Amino acid sequence: MSFDSATIDAAREGASGEAGLKLKTTRLGGRLVRILVALIVAALVAQAFYVVQARPEDLVTGVHGMVDLISRAMPPAWSEFGDMLWPALETVDLAIFGTTFGVLMALPLAVLAAANVTPARPLYYLARAVIALTRAVPDLVWALLFVTAVGLGPFPGALALSVHSIGMLGRLFAEVIEDMDFGPVEALTLTGATRLQIFTHAVVPGVLPSLLGISLYRFDENLRSSLVLGFVGAGGIGFHLLTAMNLFQYQTVSLLLIATFALVMAAERGSAMLRRRVA
Amino acid sequence: MSASAGASDAETRLAVSGLRMRYPNGKLALDGVDLAVRAGELVTILGGNGSGKTTLLRCVARLLEPTGGEVLVGGRDLARLAGRQLREARLALAMVFQRANLVKRRSVLANVASGTLGRRRTLWTALGGLPAEELPLAHELLRKVGVERLAWQRADTLSGGQAQRAAIARALAQRPKLILADEPVASLDPEAAEEIMRLLRWLAVDGGLAVLCVLHQPALALRYSHRIVGLRDGAVAFDLAAENCADDKIALLYKDLAA
After folding, report:
1. What is the secondary structure of B177-245 as a DSSP string?
2. A189: nearest CA partner in chain B
3. What whole-number distance in Å separates Cα of residue B135 and Cα of residue B113?
4. Which residue from A47, A195, A246, B60 puts its CA 20 to 30 A from A103's CA?
5. Measured between CA atoms, how close is B99 to chain A, in angstroms?
């Protein structure tokens, strides 16, 4: 098959002519689309204002109530500091448990859910479905379900975090595996190495830093979630926060909020620092 | 059959015959390729983009499944083997890639030692450990390719040329009889490219290995190869000793290719 230069030139001209026309239409179309998008966004914001019954004037009249609340919350009940330590530990442990089991369950699931290494198509779809389900249901809802199933206390909270983490981690892990550099895998395949050797010598060192980074970030997220899980009876600081609110013990509330702030900041800084180390 | 005079009585390390490869999309990438490489010989495949050079190399290594033909390595037809037999037959051939394909976060020494995994199938190596008894060999090979001082550095700290040397050391750690090199100098600066080609030639001449190399630079190919195989549209256009390979023959390979 050979092309003479005339055919090539003709083809080139045809292509540029069509492309020129397309370019003009897209330019005009682009401006219309932009105006349309701006109108849609404006309409969305306007209807949100209406639906949430936003009344800015209430913010002004509400200042009085806020000031009253804050004055009653001051000073924080430092005397209860000792009583707070156990729930604080419970909160941290909820996150540790949730992250650990989330990672352990997400790893095999991610291998099945990564298009490039999945052993069979049906397993791929099954794994993707499990990931989608566990992700889509919020951890708070999982906690409600588990409280009903196993009773009040930190354990249902830990289970809720685990299950929700499976979905969140599974998806990210699968993405890491799909984006993996296959060069070293090919190189080791050609040394006559076994599948397991290829996995431990090429795949694991290739993806481990990313997986560790994602897991640390998940721990940070789980800690924040575990604070709220107490609201539905799943243990930790959140449970005490809710109790104190209901009993109008605002000084205790402020102490617990300070503890919450400290925990969240510590987890955020700690996980960011460790993530930098493993990168 | 044309071959350089010196190597004609040496043992044939790779014999490809009638190799065909049709991709699932219907494109015929290799259309009955015949090719032989003997011990002590550096053979270079030249050809334009889409001529099938890389496909040929990957079919020989069975990184791709050829749709027809034979690939004889050490008397065994690689194209027909599977599983354990394929793994064992592969021990005889090693490959050097365009981007060295080292495991980035491991040390250079660990990368080189991983070339011995095929013959060290122990529980320890399956769990990710390195075969300790092969570390002296890895050191020795790093010295041979001139980067022994980098043994303990992480592979991702090496320059392109250094990484390619380490990759060649890994290939040698396998103790292969045949080395396949897929554009080994394409991402290197001219000086590093010359050094890598010198190293490959030396492995053929002094090491007695058979080397089959894919290159994009005719000048390098002419300078370092014993024999040049021209590939066009998936078929062998010529197979000549380097000294008989005229420039116009090579130019024909690249002429009128759709850009």
Report:
1. SEEEEESTTTTS-HHHHHHHHHHHHHHHHTT--EEEEE-S-HHHHHHH-SEEEEEETTEEEEEEEGGG-
2. B87
3. 6
4. A195
5. 8
Given CB atoms, is B98 within the 8 Å cutoff of chain A? Answer: no
Task: Please give the Cα distance from A144 to B34 (Å, whole number).
Answer: 69
Number of domains in chain A: 2
In a domain, A172, yes or no: yes
- Please indicate, yes or no, whether residues A147 and A243 belong to a single structural domain of this protein: yes
Rounded to the nearest integer, the mean pLDDT of chain B is 87
Whether A196 and B88 lie within 8 Å, measured CB to CB: no
Optimal mutation site among B114, B119, B154, interface A, most CBs of chain A within 10 A:
B114
Q: Are strands B42-46 and B227-232 parallel, antiparallel or unpaired?
A: parallel
Instruction: Give residues with Cβ within 8 angstroms of A26, minimum separation 6.
Output: none
Between chain A and chain B, the number of residue pairs with CB atoms below 8 A apart is 83
pLDDT exceeds 60 at position A10:
no
Instruction: Answer whether 0.80 is exceeded by the pTM.
Output: no
Judge: A193–B95 Cβ closer than 8 Å, yes or no: no
Is there a contact between B167 and B122 (Cβ–Cβ < 8 Å)?
A: no
Q: Are residues A47 and A98 in the same domain?
A: no
User: Which CATH number is A164's domain given?
Assistant: 1.10.3720.10
Secondary structure (3-state) at B255? coil
pLDDT in tens, B39-87: 999 999 998 888 888 899 999 988 888 998 889 988 888 888 888 888 8
User: Residue A108 is part of which domain span?
Assistant: 80-278
For chain A, what's the residue count?
A: 279
Tell me, yes or no, if A212 comes closer than 8 A to chain B by beta carbon.
Answer: no
B88 interface with A at CB cutoff 8 Å:
yes
* Closest Cα in chain B, distance from residue A255 (Å): 45
Residue A190 sits at the chain B interface (C-beta within 8 Å): yes
Residue of B nearest to A201 (CA): B128
- Taking residues A171-190, what's their average pLDDT? 89
Domains present along chain B, CATH in parentheses: 1-92+179-259 (3.40.50.300), 101-175 (no CATH)
> Has residue A95 been placed in a domain?
yes
